[in-house]
Amino acid sequence: MLHRRKFFQSSLFGSAGLVLRTGSSISTPVLNNPVVITTWEPNANATSKAYAVLEKGGRALDAVEQGVMVTEADPKDQSVGYGGLPDRDGKVTLDACVMDEKGNCGAVMAMESIMHAVSVARLVMEKTPHVQLVGDGALQFALSQGFKKQNLLTPESERLWKQWLKKAHYDPMITVENELKKGDRRPQPMPNHDTIGMIALDKAGNLGGACSTSGMAFKMHGRVGDSPIIGAGLFVDNEVGAATSTGVGEEVMKVCGSHAIIELMRAGYAPEEACRKIVERVAKRLGNNKASDLQVAFIALDKKGNYGGFSLIKPFTYVVKTQKGQKIVETKSLL
Ligand code: SD4
Fold this sequence. Notes:
Elements: H1 24-27, E1 35-39, H2 44-55, H3 60-72, E2 94-99, E3 105-111, H4 117-127, E4 132-134, H5 135-144, H6 155-167, H7 176-181, E5 196-201, E6 207-213, E7 234-237, E8 241-247, H8 249-254, H9 257-266, H10 271-286, H11 288-291, E9 296-302, E10 307-311, E11 317-322, E12 325-330
Parallel strand pairs: 3-4
Antiparallel strand pairs: 1-5, 1-11, 2-3, 2-6, 5-6, 7-8, 8-9, 9-10, 11-12
Helix pairs in contact: 2-3, 3-4, 9-10
Bound molecules: N-hydroxy-L-asparagine.
N-hydroxy-L-asparagine binds next to strand 8.
């Protein structure tokens, strides 16, 4: 209901809760009001990096690429880039995509041996006639662009993989720690599961986004999740807003999550409520029992700098940085 929407706060600072209307107000750019918003609390440094680019007047696309690169290079982050947990065959395979203010996009999927998947995705967008390159083709393209091959499997991630192999039980919802501790089969938050989805509004009033992940730990070799899929893991429409996702990619893909959120925002929903609606759609499809066994979460940002997020279960956090500072926000959740 449109009239209910004004009660939703989509910002920690309380500035939002603004109701977006359709039509010309959506496409009116808001200038000099940069915002960057990123999935998961551990991506705070990445968010700061992106904001620094925006503050200097940089393009949203540059900001999100440089921000995501921070997490990709961090060996302690076991969900993204270097140090990402491998698939069940012990191979670290990366998924990433980018989308700019003109609706251009690029993606790599199941790519091995290259740390900065987000940058390869950007080059797919800028230098090829294609949108997606997968596996060996993505690697071959990256090498042709001067990227260097490296071993992305850190000793710590290898150790966890070898420990996992003892039981080789795959459950996308159980954390690595829980897998090792055992006992508690309730869904748990995924501390090591913090795919980076980052969306930004630059000073010129343009939007951009990027998403990067090593995907579900111990997945089947060749499995690709939502993160590099335009419309599922990320969508940017410069007239409306941007959205990105995290969680069990299979469920995000089944509802084309990020694109669906943009369409709701186009119809007038504020970012948080648009995210909520799509989480509800996921839950309805699954049924409550099954839905409570997994996480799906979204963040969204509109053309005016209003933002919000929503998750299926707790906890889900995002990091946001505006002129007012940087905040970690724990979102509301459905279950
Ligand atoms: C995937 N959506 O590969 C990713 C995983 C994720 O935090 O977001 N983890 O399905």
